[in-house]
């Protein structure tokens, strides 16, 4: 790990405030990053105080004046080179993600791959920031729309995807002509430092203005400054519903734009017509992958009563085979939770579930012993519950899977939708009628609805996000780029008359 830290210029104590090549003398409190893998302190990062923050916003605003003049395909060329640099650094960055955050090495690499993929996507997009043309109702008039850069995009990201979520936002924002200020999770500042170093090198080689890629490490208050800051037209925030409500309210108060990607409470319906063996992988990976800390993690299985017992038996057997331990050891399936606080939340959820009547068919618990010295390794658990339990309605960021029984598909869909969140959902069925009903307007109410794959592991090409308490934002693929630009409608009169719209007569 020492070599990797060195490769990314990370020393024992680092500045967490940067406008690109420049790392400022940060005056805020120091954040210490501990690895949940072994509990050891990795390094510290000095966070931004208000003065540092203001200096960064000023630099970013200046950079925007220049950056927005760069042709979009040229901005795309810079992002292409960032993608190349990520390819070169994939192994090292993937390992650092795995060590600082605790996800399995495969998933660490997968996260960096998502970054590379969004770079490729953004490069193509840089030549496709299309607007529409319309037919004017007036003779000799032309009407069209164009998309202009918006300004500063603030990115607040969470610990669970410490680098990919930043890249979904920043790569799109950059090709759109925006500049970015990133507040990474205070739990994973080092992977952010690494990304900033990778980007800054590419930017410096290409003469990209200082301020196009900014980093402001810090705790909650930095996010609050961003949310209230009228110099920032767009705040893109990923995290808990609680955080999103406060960011959304503060941004809304000043009529700014927010893009919120908040909690999920994702379910898979296992139909009587499901291929049970195939479904098993999707369910188990969805529930225990990233130790249940994805916003797309599978939290609930809604299982048809005719296959309930047999599928439960398969799950119990599969869980017995899970290997929990050091995520850097590729032999293991499940790594640690992010920190002790997360372990407490996991334990409390188990207690609450039991108190409400939940019956555990796979018991949870915290693992002890030399291999689990960080105290953050927990056993993935499975409980039989009712969907109405308050704990089942709540997103616990941990590997606890709830089993619910159903009889008719209508009932299953109603259960799937009957939670405050609306991010991801899936049905396992080979029955076309069921699949189509699930995807129809009276089916899943989520932003993501899948057939015969699980709830997690979305590809970057689609718009990512969800409804209800998930916040309504869409990031990543499809036309999510539109959130990072401002639309302008233009009407041009190329005659020597000035007819008014709607046929209004106004003669002088
Ligand atoms: C998140 O957990 O915040 O679909 C994002 C997935 C990943 C992204 C998850 N591509 O699981």
UniProtKB/TrEMBL annotation:
Molecular function in Gene Ontology: aldehyde dehydrogenase (NAD+) activity
Coiled-coil segments on the chain, per record: none
Signal peptide stretch: none
Keyword NAD: yes
Domain Aldehyde dehydrogenase span(s) in chain numbering: 23-489
Record bears the keyword Oxidoreductase: yes
A Pfam family of this chain: Aldedh
Keywords assigned: NAD, Oxidoreductase
Domain of life: Bacteria
Family matches, as SUPFAM superfamilies: ALDH-like
This enzyme's EC code(s): 1.2.1.3
Active-site residue numbers: 261
Subunit annotation: Homotetramer.
PANTHER family: ALPHA-AMINOADIPIC SEMIALDEHYDE DEHYDROGENASE
Family: Belongs to the aldehyde dehydrogenase family.
Protein name per Swiss-Prot or TrEMBL: aldehyde dehydrogenase (NAD(+))
């Amino acid at each position: 790990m020492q070599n990797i830290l060195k490769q990314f210029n990370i020393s024992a104590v680092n500045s967490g405030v940067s406008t690109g090549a420049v790392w400022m003398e940060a005056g805020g409190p120091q954040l210490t990053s501990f690895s949940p893998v072994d509990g050891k302190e990795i390094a510290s990062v000095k966070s931004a105080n208000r003065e540092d923050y203001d200096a960064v916003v000023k630099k970013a605003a200046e950079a925007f004046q220049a950056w927005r003049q760069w042709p979009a395909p040229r901005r795309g060329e810079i992002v292409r080179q960032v993608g190349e640099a990520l390819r070169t650094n994939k192994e090292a960055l993937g390992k650092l993600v795995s060590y600082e955050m605790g996800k399995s090495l495969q998933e660490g690499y997968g996260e960096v791959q998502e970054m590379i993929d969004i770079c490729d996507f953004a490069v193509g997009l840089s030549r496709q920031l299309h607007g529409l043309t319309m037919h004017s109702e007036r003779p000799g008039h032309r009407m069209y729309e164009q998309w202009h850069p918006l300004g500063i995009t603030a990115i607040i990201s969470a610990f669970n995807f410490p680098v990919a979520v930043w890249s979904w936002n920043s790569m799109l924002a950059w090709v759109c002509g925006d500049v970015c200020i990133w507040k990474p999770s205070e739990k994973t500042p080092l992977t952010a430092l690494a990304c900033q170093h990778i980007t800054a090198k590419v930017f410096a080689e290409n003469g990209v203005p200082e301020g196009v890629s900014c980093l402001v490490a810090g705790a909650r208050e930095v996010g609050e400054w961003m949310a209230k800051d009228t110099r920032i037209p767009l705040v893109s925030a990923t995290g808990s519903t609680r955080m999103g409500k406060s960011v959304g309210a503060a941004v809304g108060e000043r009529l700014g734009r927010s893009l919120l990607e908040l909690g999920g409470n994702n379910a898979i319906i296992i139909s009587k017509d499901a291929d049970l063996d195939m479904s098993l992988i999707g369910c188990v990976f969805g529930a225990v992958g990233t130790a249940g800390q994805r916003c797309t993690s599978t939290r609930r299985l809604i299982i048809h009563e005719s296959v309930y017992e047999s599928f439960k038996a398969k799950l119990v057997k599969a869980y017995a085979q899970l290997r929990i331990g050091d995520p850097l050891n590729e032999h293991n399936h499940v790594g640690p939770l992010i920190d002790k606080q997360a372990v407490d939340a996991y334990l409390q959820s188990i207690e609450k579930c039991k108190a409400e009547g939940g019956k555990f068919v796979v018991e949870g618990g915290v693992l002890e012993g030399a291999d689990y010295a960080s105290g953050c390794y927990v056993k993935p658990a499975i409980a039989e519950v009712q969907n109405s339990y308050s704990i089942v309605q709540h997103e616990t960021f941990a590997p606890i899977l709830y089993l619910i029984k159903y009889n008719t598909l209508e009932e299953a869909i109603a259960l799937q939708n009957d939670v405050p969140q609306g991010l991801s959902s899936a049905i396992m069925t080979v029955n076309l009628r069921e699949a189509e009903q699930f995807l129809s307007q009276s089916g899943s109410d989520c932003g993501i609805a899948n057939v015969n794959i699980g709830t997690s592991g979305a590809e970057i090409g689609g718009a990512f996000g969800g409804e209800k308490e998930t916040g309504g934002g869409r990031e990543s693929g499809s036309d999510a780029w539109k959130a990072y630009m401002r639309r302008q409608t233009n009407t041009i009169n190329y005659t020597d008359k000035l007819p008014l719209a709607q046929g209004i007569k106004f003669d002088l």
